[in-house]
Write a structure and sequence with these properties.
heterodimer; A: alpha/beta; Peroxisomal Thiolase, Chain A, domain 1; 2 domains; 12-stranded mixed β-sheet; two-stranded antiparallel ribbon; 9 helices; 16 strands; 22% strand; globular; B: alpha/beta; 21% strand
């Protein structure tokens, strides 16, 4: 008789963003954007981001969230648990040839008492979400036990300057996902960690019930305007979870306030087969956390569904007909289903979808 | 995994320029290695659409990172093209768009053997059903010169 496939559960989580430290702070509904004081932005066209005032170094913050997510694990259990990391690279890589990304990850695993590094993802804004998809797949296939997935980005001068040079940042000081009049994204701190392990080992907060990853094959950086790649990722996540789109209760969208939000709207309309599922993008409050975004948004999604309170899509000025979705505006909505989806996309046409089932 | 095509850009290779990518040889090298490997298998685009790209690099785009840090620290102007090549995904997207590769796009920094980690990722994606073939590109920028190695792999064992 064939054994049923293992299921991947989230048994611990922690996050830091401009909304604050700790998991519950991430459910604050007000945007956290303000003037950047962490470094000199006087030469930039845009000077706004969502930064945590007392943030430490990226290594310090990653170490903190890993430690917090691992509460309940003994030192021996941690010493048997590998780290999967999502980062842009070593924060000092451009300024010192001796600072390697592999060294950064290895030091982080040692500092947090984990069993070394299993993998380091550097795939931009889908780093954390791809890491979770792969970890869940490995657990379901019986090829992996417990892992810690951590991902992080703290707003810093180099990426800020690049996004500013690329005219990607919102000129009006607000991220307005899916809104008419949106003018771009705003960067934000995003550092988080989750413990993933086969269901049945420890108390589970949520199950990673489905996942999908697919490419657009469309452009170096622009999303496919029809959203075909993202739609396939969402479809794969639903298929793996074994549910229909009508059973979904919430989508935490990738939308950042950029032109490409309409591509995601097209993808969701197509993949959800006409079902109008409540949608918001929490980037509207914590900003775009780049390599840290996918994992932070997973954490926020799990917490929101667990709390029964779906977060708002802040900054919305009015409906864009190309973004016709059931957006959560004005006030949080009650969660009507334990199933929620969080979607991410990145340069290169990379798309991911993670489907979680909240466990009460 | 079974290797069905392969290309090697030995250390010191100077790749042809890649339109839209400036300053660093990282992306041109990835594109050249991928192109040679995919041509060896398919001749011309398109390739098998259920192909994933796994880009593995310990150095990452070191040339780009150093250039941006230099400009930022010196208070110098950054050109908009730099934004579009800020992450390794960008050149992966170039290859995917040119060859019609609709599988996942994954970039890794190895902490052990780069080829082993790239092939392990390829196996994961194939076993999980998100790709039938995987283009694994290993690329390094070091002081001794740049190098790249591309492998197109699929299910099965190499002879």
């Amino acid at each position: 008789m064939t054994e049923p496939p293992l299921r991947a559960g989230i048994t611990g989580l922690a996050a830091v963003s401009a909304l604050g430290r700790g998991a519950q702070a991430q459910l604050a509904g007000a945007p956290a954007f303000g003037p950047v004081r962490r470094f000199d932005v006087s030469a930039r066209k845009v000077t706004t981001a969502a930064t945590l005032a007392d943030a430490g170094t990226l290594a310090d913050e990653l170490s903190g969230v890993i430690t917090d997510a691992c509460v309940g694990l003994s030192p021996l259990e941690r010493a048997k648990t590998p780290l999967v990391l999502g980062v842009h690279g070593h924060p000092e890589a451009g300024r010192s040839k001796s600072m390697t990304t592999a060294g950064f990850a290895t030091d982080l695993a040692a500092r947090t008492g984990l069993a070394g590094v299993a993998k380091v993802y550097t795939c931009a804004c889908v780093s954390g979400s791809t890491a979770v998809a792969d970890a869940a797949a490995s657990i379901r296939a019986g090829r992996s036990g417990r892992v810690v997935v951590a991902a992080g980005y703290l707003v810093e001068p180099d990426q800020f300057a690049l996004f500013d040079a690329g005219r990607a940042l919102a000129k009006d000081g607000a991220a307005r996902p899916f809104s008419v009049g949106r003018s771009g994204l705003l960067l934000g701190d995003a550092v988080s960690a989750v413990v993933l392990e086969p269901v049945g080992t420890r108390e589970v907060l949520a199950e990673v019930a489905g996942w999908g990853r697919a490419g657009d094959a469309h452009h170096v950086v622009r999303p496919d305007p029809n959203g075909h790649g993202m739609a396939r990722a969402v479809g794969d996540a639903l298929r793996r979870a074994g549910i229909g789109p009508d059973e979904l209760g919430y989508v935490n969208a990738n939308a950042s306030g950029a032109d490409g939000d309409s591509a995601e709207a097209a993808a969701l309309r197509g993949a959800l087969d006409g079902h109008r599922i409540p949608v918001s993008s929490t980037k509207s409050v914590h900003g775009h956390g780049l390599e840290g975004s996918g994992l932070l948004e997973l954490v926020v999604t799990v917490l929101a569904v667990h709390a029964g309170k779906l977060p708002v899509n802040a900054g919305h000025l009015g409906a864009d007909p190309d973004c016709d979705l059931d957006l959560i505006l004005d006030a949080p909505r009650p969660a009507a289903s334990p199933y929620a989806l969080t979607v991410n996309a990145a340069f290169g046409g990379a798309n991911t979808a993670l489907l979680v089932r909240s466990v009460s | 995994m079974r290797t069905i095509a392969e290309s090697v850009m030995p250390q010191g290779t100077v790749p042809p320029p890649l339109p839209g990518f400036v300053v660093s040889s990282f992306s041109p090298l990835v594109a050249a290695a991928a192109e040679q490997c995919l041509v060896a298998r398919h001749g011309k685009p398109p390739a098998e659409p259920r192909t994933a790209i796994v880009l593995v690099s310990g150095s990452g785009d070191a040339g780009m990172a150093e250039h941006v840090a230099h400009l930022v620290d010196g208070g110098l102007r950054l050109g908009p093209l730099l934004f579009f090549q800020a992450v390794p995904n960008s050149v992966a997207g170039h290859v995917a768009a040119r060859w019609g590769l609709r599988g996942p796009v994954v970039c890794l920094c190895p902490t052990g053997d780069p080829e082993a980690e790239g092939l392990a990722q390829a196996r994961l994606l194939v076993d999980d059903g998100d790709a039938d073939e995987v283009l694994v590109v290993l690329v390094e920028q070091t002081g001794a010169g740049d190098s790249a190695h591309a492998l197109l792999v699929t299910e099965g064992d190499s002879p």
